[in-house]
Request: fold
Amino acid sequence: MSNERDTTGAGPQRLAHDLRNFLAPIRNIAQVLKKRGASDPDLKAMAELLERQVAGASALLDGLDQPGKDVRGEAEVQQPALPTAHARGRRILIADDNAALRTSLGALLQDLGHETMAAADGTEALEVAAQQRPDFVFVDIHMPGLDGYEVARRLREQFARTTMKLVVMSGETLNELARRGAKEAGFDYYIDKLAGIAMFEKILTGGEPGL
Reply:
């Protein structure tokens, strides 16, 4: 009997994951430009065009993640407007081994009035969280050394949910098994790396249902 694992579908799903990680910083930069270009119609228009292109690519990636899903027309879906009630300034730790994502997401959250700090791997995330005690920790699952699940488990041993909220950031579609695993590890929320400003604000205000 063959010892090879069945990797059917692993290739497209891995490709979708890697492409989401590539697109997420571009999406964040587009949102920063759109916000900063509120008084500059040309800059705002270019940012919106860039955002639509990323949304289109994201819809195609959903097709890779979920074979058989009809993604026609999803490329033109507009992003929801910002909620009227914004989160008060939060202290947020971004833990991700993707430097471009850390920088772009940090810029976006700072433009929304939050204080950010960053960690490039799981060990650094634990150190920064212990020293700085942020209100929210956004954690990538796939990091060198300690992965996101282990980071969440260790943080949850030290900090209660009322003290520190943990948000899993993923470049993969969240299925029920992944949701259960994230919840058991101690995460409070899930966010797609290609999410828009409105989703970040919902989580930071407690308006998004937990896992």
In short: Residues 10-36 form the longest helix (27 residues). Strands lie at 91-95, 115-119, 136-140, 165-170, 189-192. The first strand starts at residue 91 and ends at 95.
